[in-house]
Amino acid sequence: MRILMACMKFPTAPGQSYLTTELAQALVAAGHVVEVLLIDWDAAPGAPDGPCADWKDVRVVRCTPRLIGGLGGLVRNASKFVLTGRRARRLARDHFDLERFDAFIAWTPVLAFGSCVGLARKAGVARRLLFIWDFFPDHYHEIGRIPGGPALWLARALEQRLMDQFNVLLCTLPQNADYLRRNFQVRAAQAVRVTPIWSDVAPIPDTDRSTVRRRHDLPQDRPLAVFGGQLVEGRGFDQMLAAAAVGRERGSPLLFLFVGDGRLAPMLSAQASDNVLWRPAMPREAYLQLLTACDVGMVATVPGVSSFTIPSKTLDYLRAGLPVVAALEAGNDFSALLERYGVGRAVPFEDPDGFFTTAEALAAGPSVDAAAQLCLEEVFHVRHAVASVLADL
Fold this sequence. Notes:
Rossmann fold; single chain; six-stranded parallel sheet; alpha/beta
C-alpha cells in the first residue's frame, strides 16, 4: 500500500524523533510505502523547500512557510495559512504522483494544508484519515492563540469543510470522540475512532545520575520535578509555578526544573529562584538522559478548555521511569489511566497545594519503572496506532 502523510513536524536529524516519524517507520516496517509532505511551520519564511534526501526509506518533500509580515499578528497568521497552503498544493502537485496513492493521512489543523486534501480526493485517493490531537481552532482560541470574532468563525468554518473530506477521524481519548460529535458535524459516512498517542517505548538507558546533574549544573542532593518541552501557551505553567511557591513557603527541598525554549522561556527564566530552575532546549538524547536524573515529571493543561488531551511529554517521563503529577480537567480519562497503571496521580486545577504535595510524595515514593513500561507497552506502543490505521485502510 502507498501512503501519503501530510504533517507539520517530521524531524529527520540524527537522534531526533516524533510521533509522525515513528508512525512512518512502523508503516514501512509493515511493508508499506510512505511518502511525506512536511509543512515545516516553524522554518524561516521563504527558506528553500522541495524534495529532501530520503529518510529511512521515507521520501520527504518539505514546504516552508509563506506569509505577509508587517501588518500585525492577525494578517501574519491568516496569510501564513493561506499562502503556505497554496505553496503546499503546488509542491504536492509537482512532486507526488497522487493517483498512485491508496491512502492519505493528515493531522489537525487541516487548514495548514487544506488544498492538498482536495488534491488527494480529486486524484482518487480512496481512504483519507485525519488524526485529531486537539480541536482547531477552538482549543487555540481557549488558550489565547487565536482571537475570537470573525477570525475564529472563519477558521472554524474552513476547518469543518476540510474535515468533511476525510473518511476516518481519529481522536486520542473517548471523551474527545464525544466532543467531536457534539461540536462538529460528523457525516454518517465518516467513522470516528479512538487511538491514543504513541511513542518509542524503549526504556532510556541508565546513566550515572551524579554525572548528569553535574553536566547540567543541578544540585546533587535535592529531588527534581521536571517539565520538558515547548515553553508556550497552553502548558499550564501558572499551575506549576504556584505549586513551586507553596514548596518555597514550606522550605521543601523539591526543585521545579523547566527545560525548553519558546515564547514563555524569558518568563520562566525570570522566575528562577531557590526552587525554580530553567535550562534551554538541548538535543533530544541529552534531554532524555537528563530525565533519568530527575524524580517526578510534571504536566498541566489549561483551565477553561473544553476538550481533553494526553500531554505527549508524559511518554518521555514514563520511558525514564518517572511518576507523573498532572493538573487536569475534571473527568479527563487520562487521570484514570495514570492511576490504573500506578504511574502517577492527577490533581484538580487551582490546587497548587495539592500539586506540590503530590509531586513531593511521588518524588520520594517507590520506583515505577515496571509499571511505566507496562503502561507504555499496553497503551502507547506505536503498533496500536498502526493497527488502527491499517484496520481503516
